[in-house]
């Protein structure tokens, strides 16, 4: 049986160790907390300091940067990018190749469409169809 971790050098020359998540085989950095019921698909990266709640699904090739919080039953689609310090509310859906900026907030139950971008520090709330609600 092969090893259950991978060592990767970051841009600063530091070596980070990632373990393969039991549900989906995605890579989880040391220091990240992922609920056992969450699925992190192969090819997805979860960086240090991330907190992923129960029943979250992180798609293939998604990148969840450091110190992100993802609420229960949220869905992060393949190739999505969640910037450092962002927060994704419970039941929110982030579309394919969507980008959530640094420190951005996505409200509970919101829908961020495919290829949509949320700016750094922005707070977004939508209905289930993806229509933006007044702040």
TrEMBL record:
Q: Where are the transmembrane segments?
A: none
GO function terms (MF aspect): transferase activity
Give the InterPro entries listed for this entry.
Hexapep, LpxD, Trimer_LpxA-like_sf
Q: Which branch of life, at top level? A: Bacteria
Q: Which keywords appear in this protein's UniProt record, sorted alphabetically?
A: Acyltransferase, Lipid A biosynthesis, Lipid biosynthesis, Lipid metabolism, Transferase
Q: Could you tell me which PANTHER family the record lists for this protein? A: UDP-3-O-ACYLGLUCOSAMINE N-ACYLTRANSFERASE, UDP-3-O-ACYLGLUCOSAMINE N-ACYLTRANSFERASE 1, MITOCHONDRIAL-RELATED
Q: What is the protein name for this chain? A: Transferase
């Amino acid at each position: 049986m092969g090893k259950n971790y991978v060592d990767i050098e970051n841009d600063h020359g530091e070596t980070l160790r990632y373990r393969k998540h039991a549900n989906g085989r995605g890579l989880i950095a040391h220091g990240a907390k992922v609920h056992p019921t969450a699925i992190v698909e192969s090819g997805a990266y979860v960086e240090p300091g991330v907190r992923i709640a129960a029943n979250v699904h992180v798609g293939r090739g998604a990148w969840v940067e450091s110190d992100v919080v993802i609420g229960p039953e949220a869905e992060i689609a393949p190739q999505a990018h969640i910037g450092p310090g962002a927060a994704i509310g419970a039941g929110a859906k982030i579309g394919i190749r969507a980008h959530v900026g640094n420190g951005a907030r996505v409200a509970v139950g919101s829908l961020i469409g495919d290829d949509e971008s949320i700016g750094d520090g922005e707070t977004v709330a939508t209905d289930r169809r993806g229509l933006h609600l007044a702040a």
